Amino acid sequence: MAYTPGQFHQDQSIANVLDDVARAHRILELEGHGDMSMGHLSYRDPFGRGLWLKRGNLALSEVVGDDFILIDFDGNVLEGTGLRHLEWPLHAEIMRARPDVNVVGHSHAHHSTVFAATDQELGPYNNHGVWFAEHGVPRFTDTSHIITTVELGVEVAKQLGDAEAILLRNHGIAFVGDDVIEATLAGIFLEKAARFQLDLLSAGVAYELPDPAESIEKRRRIYPPKAQQNYWMYFNRKLERVEALQGIGIAQL
Ligand SMILES: [Zn+2]
């Protein structure tokens, strides 16, 4: 796979977004999504050529702006060097099915993956769960295997529907957004909501599902674009403080 300088280096707008997508990887590691060199985000190429996918053999905490390869929707590598993650069809098929989605993430975040292994429905039991109040979080149970075929990718995308995330039973999660901020918050909030609900379940006390209509209204009220930007900046400041002390590539706090 010979590297030829192409659009990536010619178009600063893509490079700028990929810097943010790289930061999103490192933020997600800080927020409990790290699992050795597994997990990856992708960004839809604005010129319609395909998607920019994190390359393989790197931890989430190690990703910088140059660590992306451009693949088309059939998985052909168009630009960049390094390994193509086996689960590229997960990204390609979600983007094919969801024109509104520009960023897709996949990880094995611990609490979300524990939650995915249960038969419980994720609910808006705290503010983080409210992110998913409108569409819920479906659970993909066709296989516990990784999503390495187009057929499985198509099925995950179909079952994701209009939702912001999907649980992959005995495997992990996928989460999406129309930009890097939305996708990152979806990943972080799913992990926090799953942890909260597991705590709730293990407390062994009675609890009730909050009113669904109220939860949808609450979602609109507490997560307007301005608030999303505010939380994104918070997570970036947190990342900068950690990296100022430890550099890029930390495994855990
Ligand atoms: Zn996986």
UniProtKB/TrEMBL annotation:
Listed SMART domains: Aldolase_II
Span-the-membrane segments of this chain are none
The protein's UniProt keywords, in alphabetical order, are: Lyase, Metal-binding
Class II aldolase/adducin N-terminal domain ranges (all copies): 19-198
Q: Which organism encodes this protein?
A: Lysinimonas soli
Q: What is this protein called?
A: Class II aldolase/adducin family protein
Q: Which is an annotated Pfam family here?
A: Aldolase_II
Q: Is Lyase tagged as a keyword?
A: yes
Source superkingdom: Bacteria
